[in-house]
Amino acid sequence: MKAVVFYDVGDIRLENVAEPKIQQPEDAIVRITSSAICGTDLHFIRGTMSGMKKGRILGHEAVGIVEEVGNAVRNFRKGDRVIIPSTVGCGSCNYCRAGYYAQCNRANPGGPLAGTTFFGGPEDAGGLDGLQAEYARVPFAATNLVMLPEEISDDQAIMMSDILPTSYQAASMAEINSGDTVAIFGCGPVGMMAIACAQHLGAGRVFAIDQVASRLEMARKHGAEAIDFSKESPVEVLRELTMGSGPDRVIDAVGVDATCGSAKQQEKKKFEAEMKEIDPHANDAKKKGWWLGGAPTQALEWAVESVAKAGTLSVIGVYPPTLNSFPVGQMMNKNLTVKSGNCNHRKYLPRLVELVRSGVIRPEQYFTQKIGVTSAIDAYHHFDQHEHGWLKVKLEPAAAEKAA
């Protein structure tokens, strides 16, 4: 089968690889009918998150058809159409049963103290092959598959594999109430969907902060008030528009390397070489400061500075464990509530399926490109550059391309 395979930082390839097999009684094999490229995939390709194994299949968003199930899977059969949530939980441990699927005690081979398990990630994230392929093995399939009703299309469903649940969790952690003013840093797919989720939860005004013109324009079209941080101070503008107080709720949908495109890889290498000469013991956080002028947490710092006193900060953007910088002094002195974490996708999917089926939320409108998997490497390049009009990329499997 064809799959997008990681080899090294800046080196991914479309290759023919062996089809997955059932390994445990709880497994299922799913034929992928739609997958997608996510900003998190770029962390590995850019090298801002380490630990990726050569030969690992990328991707953690997919919709498909069940082809085979293990003996312990009682709720799915061959032919069932399903969403594959991005993070993996066993469904039985105390964390999963409390809804914290991203903190499952069993899914990660590293043991109970290991981190979130997800498809197509580093070894410390479970070491699972990803979903940008024609077939995928899904562990703990009884929990990690969600049945899809016929009324929901693949275009709608693929956004529910990761982006919509992540955005919904971001809005939920922000504790948005009716009439609240909400600022969202980052207008990538998660930030864009967070606008819709904030509006669904009753936000009175939503501000969207980014520097990519096409993304800001899309945010405007969906009812947000756009702020271009490359042209004006987002903190000052947010205060000006809220009578000096700042927004009630702020969402960081950026993460550590929002502006770290592959075009800057040579610049990055030069920067790190120079830093090594100055300080051979510079830590990873310092080395990663190059793309935001020495501030890999710039969006987070803006968020803490801009949010109203006694407000709430929701951090859903991805930051690596090696990054230890946070403006804790401002947080404490402003009486802020801060919530963060990887998305517990499986927790939110049942309600989101109904919101999409009823038309309350229309995730399909955020797709900007639909591309065959054989063109995936080129699509990664365009997506990485934040090129005009590139927001969310759906990948069609090789079999669909042949049929066309």
Explain the overall architecture.
This protein is α/β, with parallel strands linked by helices and 404 residues long. The protein folds into two domains: 2-162 and 344-403, Alpha-Beta Complex (Quinone Oxidoreductase, Chain A, domain 1); 167-340, NAD(P)-binding Rossmann-like Domain (Rossmann fold, 3-Layer(aba) Sandwich). Helix content is 30%, strand content 19%. It has 15 helices and 15 strands. The protein has helices at residues 39-46, 94-97, 141-144, 154-158, 163-173, 189-200, 213-221, 234-240, 265-278, 284-287, 298-306, 328-333, 345-357, 376-384, 398-403; strands at residues 2-8, 11-16, 28-37, 62-69, 81-84, 135-138, 146-147, 181-185, 205-210, 225-228, 249-252, 312-315, 337-340, 369-372, 393-396. The strands form three sheets. Strands 3, 4, 5, 6, 7, 14 and 15 form a seven-stranded mixed beta sheet that branches. Helix 5 packs across helix 6 (189-200) and helix 5 (163-173) packs across helix 13 (345-357). Residues 258-269 and 278-294 have low confidence and may be disordered.
